[in-house]
Amino acid sequence: MAAVHVVTSRVRLGQRVFAVAMLLLVGAALAGPGPAALAASPPVHAPASAAPAPTPDFSLTVSPTRLVIPQEQLSKDQHFAVTNHGRLPLDVVVNRAGFTAGRDGTLQFQSTEAPYSALTWISASPARFHLAPGARQVVAVRIAVPKNPEPGDHHVAMLFMVPAAGDKKKIRLNRGIGAPLYITVPGPVDDTVKIPSLRTSGFAMGGPVHFRATFQDTGTVHRDFRDKGRLNVRVDGRDVAFPDFTVQRDSTREVTARWDDPPLMCICRAEVVLPGPHGTSQTARATVVIFPVLPAVGVIAGILAIVFCGVFVRRRYRARVLREALALQRGGNLGDLRQAGPNMNPGNAEADLFGDIAEPDIGTEGDTPNR
């Protein structure tokens, strides 16, 4: 029976080796590529510096791009600098337009009066001028506030247009730039903005995650959220910034913040704190669940494949060991079977062998038999 116990020890040793191999394979599947794999990846070469782009035919700039005129500066002239950066000379015409702001912040210009419009309050000098390539022209804007205006914000846009030239029978496109002016009329000023909601997808498999906030101006003037006044979404202990934006008087604005590097998985609670007058504030909250579904399915599938492969290999190994044990048993006990006579059943010997392998007699020193 010593041969049977040696085979049994080999089976137990194979089980331990299989368990260690399983742990190593699962750990490798969860950990991903190691430092050696990362080091072996080919280096990324920075693209060679491209040649400078040629100067376009048309390139017009206006500075500043917007003007906010407080109460104390209504009597002063405001100035815009118009510059031709193109290769062709330009004839510029200065116009005025009312405008409204969409929920996404897009300005929609219109020739008629808009709510809180200052369309008839301003005049520009010069109203027409010629710009040679590389030339610059300063345009002065004068504000004439009518009697008894409604306190608060009034707005208008300055349009610096370049009329299209050429044959009138062909399609022509006018080109230009619009610069909004926010004019504050003397009186009580209220820049209260409410934040009715903060929304997100609710579930994401990874980045980027978008947070969309709605802002509603209920005061008498617009409110800027720029530079030091920029708003952030506080999520997972980090600040995700909104882009610079303005909420126009008596309007609603939707702004989106993009979170590019969320954690691998979390139940993340986001909030936006909006400062209000006299030290008050408003808070809007949202929750997003982040879970990497596809990578998790890949890892689970890999683990199941490893398990099934290991079970298959283990069964084949045990079957081979069992066949070798039976061969050794038959060869070692051949003389005993002949001496036992007709009352000895060879099938009983095989059954005893199966019992020894299934329930080996292990001594106090591990795999060493007591027999």
Q: In words, what does this structure look like?
A:
The chain is built from five helices and 20 strands. The protein is of the alpha+beta class and 371 residues long. It has three domains: 2-26 and 297-358, no CATH class; 64-185, Immunoglobulins (Immunoglobulin-like); 193-291, Immunoglobulins (Immunoglobulin-like), CATH 2.60.40.10. The strands form five sheets. Strands 2, 4, 5, 7, 9 and 10 form a six-stranded mixed beta sheet that branches. It has a five-stranded mixed beta sheet with strand order 12-20-19-15-16, with no helix packed on it. It has a four-stranded antiparallel beta sheet with strand order 1-3-8-6, with no helix packed on it. A hairpin with a 2-residue loop joins strand 15 (232-235) and strand 16. The longest helix has 40 residues, at 293-332. It is elongated, with a radius of gyration of 41 Å.
List the main descriptive attributes of the protein structure presented here:
371 residues, Immunoglobulin-like, 6-stranded mixed beta sheet, 5-stranded mixed beta sheet, 35% strand
What's the CATH architecture of the largest domain?
Answer: Sandwich
Query: What is the CATH C level class of the largest domain, in words?
Result: Mainly Beta
Strand elements, count = 20
Q: Show unreliable segments.
A: 1-7, 28-42, 361-371
CATH T-level fold name of the largest domain? Immunoglobulin-like
Order of helices and strands: HHEEEEEEEEEEEEEEEEEEEEHHH
Mean pLDDT: 80
Provide the CATH superfamily of the largest domain. Answer: Immunoglobulins
How many domain units? Answer: 3
Share in β-strands: 25-35%
Instruction: Please state the structural category.
Output: alpha+beta
**How many angstroms separate the termini?**
9 Å
Envelope shape? elongated
Main sheet summary: 6 strands, mixed
Please work out how many helical segments DSSP would assign. Answer: 5
**Percentage of residues in helical conformation:** 25-40%
Radius of gyration: 41 Å
